[in-house]
Structures are given as C-alpha cells and as structure tokens.
Amino acid sequence: MVKRIYLFLVMLLLLLLIPLNGVFASAEQHVYDDANLLSTKEIEQLKALATQYEEEHDTKFVILTTNDTKGKGFKKYTQDFYDEQFDGGNVAIITVDMKDREIYIAGFYKAKEYIDNTRIEHILDKVQPQIANENYFEAFETFLQISDEYMGIRPGVDPELFIFKWQYQVVIALGLAGFVLWIMIRNSGGKVTVNERTYMNAKDSRILKRRDVYLRKTVTKRRKSKNNGGSGGSGGGVTSGGHSHSGGSRGF
Q1: Which residue intervals define the domain TPM in the entry (predicted)?
Q2: Given this model, what pLDDT does residue 46 score?
Q3: What distance in Å separates the CA atoms of residue 74 and residue 102, rounded to the nearest whole number?
Q4: How far apart are CA 93 and CA 82, in angstroms?
Q5: Domain total for the chain?
Q6: pTM for this structure?
Q7: Is residue 170 part of a domain?
Q8: How far apart are the first and last CA of the chain?
Q9: Using CA atoms, how far apart are residues 93 and 248, in angstroms rounded to an integer?
Q10: Helix, strand, coil % (nearest 5) of the chain?
Q11: Is residue 70 part of a domain?
C-alpha cells in the first residue's frame, strides 16, 4: 500500500514538472529556427545577445524562421505565434518565411512604440540584402543590434537622421572647431582701417560707360526618378488575441 502511494506521488510530481519545464523553456527561448538556417553555435550567440538586450530594455527580441506558414501567410503566422507563445508583453519579432521568401518584423507594446513602422523599414533596408545573400546569422545579428539602438532613441524621432550618426557628429564638431579657430585668428590680427574709400576721390570719380556682355546659356537636364519596387508592406495590425502591433515586410 505504501509503495503504491509512493508511486502515485512520483507520477503526480512528474506530471506537474513537465508543463512547468515547457513554460520556462518558452520564456527563455529567443530563437525559433524551424527552417534550420542557423548552426547550434550561432543560435547560442544570438540567444546571448537577445538576452542581454532584453534585460536592458525590458523587451524580448525573437527570431522566427519557417518553411511552412500553414497557409496563414507570414503576417498571420507571426501574429498567431505571438498569441500562442507570449499573449501579451513587450516583444519584437523578425520572421523569415523561406517558402514565400518574405521577411516580416513586428513590434508589440513597448516595442511597437520604439520599433514603429518607419523604423522597421530602416531595419529591413539593412537585413534584406543579408538574407537575400543567405547571410542569415549576420542578418539576425543586425536585427538585434539595430533594435537595441532604436530602443534607446525616443519614439517619434527618425533614428536615421544625420544628427544621430557619429560620422556626421564628428564633421560638425570639426566644422565648429574650425570656425572658432578662424574667428580667433581674425580677431588676433587687429582691426583693418583701410578700405576702398581710402584711395577714392568721391568728387572726381564717376561711371564712364555701361555695357552688357552675353557669356553663355546653361541648360540643366534632370533624370526622372523611377520606382524600382522592393518597398515594404503589410504594416502593423491586431492579433486574434487583441494585441496591436507595428509591422513591415520585405521580399527577398
């Protein structure tokens, strides 16, 4: 009798532990590489980077790849994935659909504010060529790094403005330093008291003759810009669970 009770308690404990392990694994997982685009080492590196950024921004960064969206399309597939795995919370997801060759990025809650539709288009500009060239690890690393950068810039500001780029900041700083130096050199030479009036007799000076000389005619041609396609689409939306999100997609 005692043995049966002991076995029953062991089985009950195992039943309780199995779902808990599943929940913890889901909470810790950042890379869902169902399309097998990454090596084990690459997954670990991306997971470490995503975990670091999650702690800094209170936002989870997720990489999702698939060969089959089960007929849902990449956007609905991403939305359902969010509802099933997270169902609320600050999450940014990049989905790569290998079957339809589409990239989709979505931001939920805090990520929706900091990684909005405009910023998603900037991220897609960077990762789309990398994925098209099958540099998957570099693309996902770029997604994480740029997302981390954007999470540090207040919402509503275009992070690609030149004032946020260090190269331009260096140029501006050098320009200001040069201007200040020029002012100092100019002032150090003393005031110039001689001008054109010093040697000009106002009474005897006059205009003797006027004439207009035609030099040349200049014609400027401008090429009419063309739309070469490749722009993003799909945008944000609302999941079946009622979670609003930003979004953008790009084919590769």
Answers
A1: 31-145
A2: 98
A3: 7
A4: 9
A5: 1
A6: 0.65
A7: no
A8: 65
A9: 11
A10: 45, 15, 40
A11: yes
